[in-house]
Amino acid sequence: MAEPERTLIIVKPDAMQRGLAGEILTEFERRGLRISALKLTQVDRSLAERHYGIHKGKPFFEGLVSFITSSPVIVGVFEGPDAIAAVRQTMGATNPTAADPGSIRGRYALDIGHNLVHGSDSSETAAFEIGLFFQPEEIRSYRRDIDPWIGA
Ligand code: IDP
Ligand code: MG
After folding, report:
1. Range list of β-strands (E), the chain
2. What is the 3-state composition of the chain as percent helix, strand, coil, each rounded to the nearest 5?
3. According to the 3-state scheme, what is the secondary structure of 89-129?
4. Which residues are catalytic?
């Protein structure tokens, strides 16, 4: 059985402005993942720089920080078997025109700088990013009756 994992997702400013938040959350929920935490928030510059610290110095860094701080976003923790890989697959590749056409980015996005959604890329990153956005008491551990039916 796949390992239970938690991962951080962000419904980015472009998705919020385009009214795609519900659609995106639905994708992860329908995949079988369980919502462990969810909130609307506005990312400030300091949090953006910490969250995207790995990209500091890259040519797109400044644009990325101003983009992610440009509108309220929804941040969430999703939990389930292999949640990190499942979210990445459901999101699709970073560049939407290279993303699987069935993925969120492949269906709804065209530009790498406007790719709608963030998902942690490893268990270390997930733990770090969840800690950036959520206090431990904001994250709920619970079981659903359907969990055995999705292998959770
Ligand atoms: P990911 O979001 O698929 O994990 P990362 O490589 O971690 O992709 O990059 C973080 C975000 O930075 C991407 O989602 C994208 O919005 C932006 N980004 C990455 N590479 C480029 C680029 O070459 N030009 C513009 N924006 C980029
Ligand atoms: Mg990334």
Report:
1. 4-11, 34-41, 73-81, 117-119
2. 45, 20, 35
3. HHHCCCCHHHCCCCCHHHHHCCECCECCEEECCCHHHHHHH
4. 118
Atom of ligand 1 nearest to the CA of 93: 3
Mutation to probe ligand 1, out of 54, 64, 88 (largest number of atoms < 8 A from CB)? 64
Atom 24 of ligand 1: nearest residue by CA position: 60
Dihedral sign of CA atoms 152, 6, 30, 138 in order: positive
What is the CATH topology of the domain spanning 5-43+72-150?
Alpha-Beta Plaits (3.30.70)
Write the single-letter amino acid at 32: G
pLDDT digit string, tens, across residues 67-119? 999 999 999 999 999 999 999 999 999 999 999 999 999 999 999 999 999 99
- Strand ordering across the sheet containing 117-119: 34-41, 73-81, 4-11, 117-119
Ligand 1 center to 113 CA (angstroms): 7
Domain spans, the chain: 5-43+72-150
Kindly give the number of the ligand 1 atom that is closest to the alpha carbon of 115.
16
Residue 91 near residue 101, CB atoms below 8 Å: no
